[in-house]
Protein: Undecaprenyl-phosphate 4-deoxy-4-formamido-L-arabinose transferase
Organism: Aquicella siphonis
Amino acid sequence: MVQNPYISIVIPVHNEQEVLEELYARLTGALDKLGKPYEIILTNDGSTDQSGQMLRDLHHRRPDQIRVIEFNGNYGQHMAIMAGFERVRGQIVITMDADLQNPPEEIGKLVAAMEAGHDVVNTYRENRQDSWWRLQVSKWHNKIRAWMMPKLKMQDEGCMLRAYSRNIVDLMASTGESSTFIPALALTYASRPTEVGVAHAERSAGTSSYNFYKLIRYNFDLVTGFSVFPLQVFTMIGLLISMCSFIFVTFLMLRRLIVGPEVEGVFTLFAIMFFLLGIVLFGLGVVGEYVGRIYQEVRKRPRFVVRHVLERPAAAPAADFNPAAVAEAG
């Protein structure tokens, strides 16, 4: 039987064969230095390269510490993390990407913050090593998100290196939502969240699996999952346009009675009509996003399908303990 770990690391993996060996070496080295029992859960999210075989090899090197979840297809980063959440054994659960842009050596900062009594530790990237346009997009996106959802206190929502207490993770895993945004979901349950700065590095190998379409879907999951702000905006726009339209129609009727019929301005009216139709169609698209998510939830289909799990049986569950109490005892 495997000793119950104190720390669980959950990592989604999708076509990361170029970095897995370095990830293994640096991550195990950083965790060994902490001197606390740990486990690493790696979810293979439908990789089409050699990542699956490499993950199996890593498990055989450290079968007591490395566990591998194999999906039968590609279900996305957040579902890969959720699959890990459903199987974690540790009291402190840390998520991170496999691309090493957030150095594993920073994990100690998150553990220290958790042992100080926080139940969610969010992070922000210091000295980001990204292109200028990506930095600007991220900057404005964070500002817009803060304006639309002021209750979600996140300085940098794009950094996946985060830590959660076990009870927060259990709550998130129990929701059964088919699409969600994990950092925001955690904040809805947290009572003592905090943020710490972590280092950031350029991707050393491979390419990002987030293309333009996936980035759009990622933001739709965040906005529609935690706010009705878009619906409220279009309600107000609809009211404003209705009032303006009523005033404009009244003006045209009075003008026809006073001046008489005329053909001038026909193309202007067409331009106004097309503009209003564009707003209507865009609004229908926003409503469709919410309806589509409702449809996904009511079908109750599995969020993901696990092909198999490589792991050793766990020891009998120990009594729950508080990370802060462990720190004080140390």
